[in-house]
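Summary of Year 1 activities. Much of the first year was spent building the evaluation harness for sequence design. The harness presents a backbone, in tokenized form, and records the residue chosen at every position. We chose the following record to illustrate the format because it has been used consistently in internal testing since the harness was completed.
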């Protein structure tokens, strides 16, 4: 009897631990989605320094990496986690979770945290988003995006780019060169969000409903896309 009680206690403890772990994972994902939504809202609240209307109107996908970290001692390291959504014939897709990683060498002391926005500008960029991993500047052409709501992406680099990249740090918003960084799928977090292994292309093609905790983020992206389209 004692043995059975011990087994039951062990199972109860294991179940409780698993439930707590799942709740912690979901809280982490909720925070990332909320942070990504806030980044978009705050950037678009600065008309003279935001993303140009023409860029937002033509976007195929939007990737937001809140609090991307860069900096270390001697060897610089870069790492961030974020969310992505892509345009579909029926609106913007449910989100997937991604990682952005890179490295630089040089004498660096201290660190900094930066919000990043990456915008896929064409079908080539979308196809890279559907892959498991790709390197900006090598596998996918990337360029620092133009800034200013009425600015035009008229430079050769911007016109050819599959991705336009932006950063916001200490209140300053500007285009950023992210060549050499690697964007990859975060399958673990995407699984935690949807409760099963769902291929990225299924989600980004709009074949999964938007989860409740992601609706505000997707709605915010969709709102500014519509505004941009109407203001063309």
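For this record, the design step produced the sequence shown next.
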């Amino acid at each position: 009897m004692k043995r059975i009680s011990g087994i039951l206690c062990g199972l109860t403890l294991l179940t409780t631990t698993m439930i707590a772990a799942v709740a912690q994972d979901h809280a982490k994902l909720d925070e990332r989605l909320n942070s990504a939504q806030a980044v978009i809202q705050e950037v678009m609240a600065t008309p003279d320094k935001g993303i140009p209307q023409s860029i937002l109107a033509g976007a195929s996908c939007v990737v937001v990496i809140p609090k991307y970290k860069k900096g270390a001692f001697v060897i610089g390291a870069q790492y961030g986690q974020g969310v992505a959504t892509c345009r579909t014939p029926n609106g913007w897709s449910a989100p997937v979770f991604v990682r952005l990683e890179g490295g630089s060498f040089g004498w660096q002391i201290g660190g900094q945290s930066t919000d990043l926005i990456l915008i896929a500008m064409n079908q080539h960029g979308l196809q890279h988003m559907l892959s498991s991993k790709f390197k900006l500047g090598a596998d996918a052409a990337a360029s620092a995006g133009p800034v200013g709501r009425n600015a035009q992406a008229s430079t050769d680099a911007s016109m050819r780019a599959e991705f336009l990249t932006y950063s916001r740090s200490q209140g300053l918003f500007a285009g950023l060169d992210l060549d050499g960084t690697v964007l990859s799928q975060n399958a673990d977090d995407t699984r935690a969000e949807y409760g099963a292994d769902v291929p990225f292309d299924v989600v980004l093609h709009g074949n999964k409903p938007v989860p409740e905790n992601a609706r505000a983020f997707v709605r915010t992206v969709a709102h500014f896309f519509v505004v941009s389209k109407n203001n063309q």
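The chain has seven helices and ten strands. Quantitative recovery figures across the full test set are reported in Table 2.
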